[in-house]
Amino acid sequence: MPTINIKRDHLHNELGKVYSQEEFEDLCFEYGLELDEVTSEREQIVKEKGDKKTTEGSTDVIYKIDIPANRYDLLCTTGLVRALMIFQGKVDIPKFIAVDPVDYSTNKILVTQNTQSVRPYVVCAILRNITFNQDLYDSFIDLQDKLHQNLCRKRTLVAIGTHDLDTIKGPFLYDARTPNDIKFVPLNETKEFTAAELMEHYSGNSHLKPYLSIIRDEPKYPVIYDANGTLLSLPPIINGDHSKIKLTTKNIFIECTATDENKASIVLDTIICMFSEHCSPKFQAEKIQTIYEASNETKTYPKLNTRSEKLPYDRASRMLGAKLSKEEICKLLDRMQLKCSSDDDGSLINIEIPPTRQDILHACDIIEDVAISYGYNNIVKTLPKVVTIGSQFSLNKLSNQLRYELSRCGYTEALTFSLCSKDDIANKMRLENEISRAVHIANPKTIEFQVARTSLIPGLLKTVESNKKMPLPLKLFEISDVVLKDSTKDVGSRNQRMLAALHYNKFPGFEVIHGLLDRIMQVMEVKYNSEGTNKGYFIESTNDERFLPGRCASIIYNGNSIGIMGVLHPQVITNFELVQPCAALEINVETFLKR
Questions:
Q1: Does the global pTM surpass 0.85?
Q2: What is the 3 state secondary structure string of 135-184?
Q3: Which ranges carry the B5 domain (predicted)?
């Protein structure tokens, strides 16, 4: 969930009212948002650097507000303030307009065939007569960063470029050229670089380094030029310094290059809807034609289209369990920036969805807005109309009881990822064949999440690896599911509830982990069977590549092995970059339900 930082005093000024923190928290809650933290620039610097005596940064109070990931219109101060003002009925819903320019001869961009293999799409628009102040300028830059991280998928789908229109001249050219043929002065630099040199120059830049790989291995890089041959942008990396936006900028040229044309159009519309409010005339943007050389096709942006949805007026009442009239529903939706009107026979509500509400994909999204506007706390609680009595799932009940007992033994619960890398469950654990037992992800996005875990122990070891500075001993446990292949299941796999515990200290601690096993069996009322028969439990020596030979035991319960315990092999410890010995225990919880 993205978080936006807004200066409290600036927010109050825009809202036209000074709120107490509690009042603003209530307003956020009513709208479905959350005030996550109240801080300041200086406090954030203290947290990052640990220097309590620092004088860096402002002491102005900053509100950090959590925003739903699909509400792109709330990712800046302008959008948030507008939404809250409309919600309170203080301003009307704006109407956004895309106007034709006086002359399309300069308001166009030619897309060459060279771009088809790298970033084939571009959409553009112009904002005229905008008035910046420092807070608005900061919000303008911050919105682009938020969109890059969110909707633009870290610039892989869309990259945004904004330029001072008064420093450049149309028509524009979107081309792709070899790295050594591209020369320009990048943003906030004074030296001219080739694109190849820039790749090396920014390889140590923490902000831009993650984006270099998007085009680095391509034979040609995308570039945008103006009519004078001035390079405006090397997307998705950086803009040129020549056309950078300043506080004095009045006219802005916006270009979004993309691998997904629809996403680019949404991004362009979002930026325009947020900042056209500060233009003259308001809520208006100027169109630019995109001419594709490969297909000889011409498209015009921005779209700023509204779309319509029809909703039976009684459906919202029925789904929410609240008796609402058609007029009440219309008023509630107006508060959520959705204009409503009745159809001819009055059975349906016609809802106009503005370009700011790209999150609305279905009628259920509209009903959710009705619920937010009405207030979840105002919905009367009722019992479901079914003849049944609910009860806790037995496996979850047992798991919770075991969590309570393990925490009483001084162990801290960890919650680790269900997905992990192949290396975590195989090479690091000295189990080369474990990969064949694992369920694989067909299209993993990162090497950290390639397979479903087959054991909880690697996750606990990675938790210790991330907390090596904590005082010893570290005693961790986790009760959760692993995923195992199972040809008898229709999906080819099954979940299995496991319990794992780990003791990390200066000495191995086999007896400590053994004591934990005895306590688990004691609370489960399972007696120790020293005779080794098929009743109760006992342990017997076994060999496992993960554990030290002679310091590993199989746990036998009612004649079947249900888990393993022992001192982990030094190579396993080293593979997880740990330096102290470690004992571990892992058992199958589900077996206790079958007795």
A1: no
A2: HHHHHHHHHHHHHHHCCCCCCCCEEEEEEEHHHCCCCEEEEEECHHHCEE
A3: 304-381
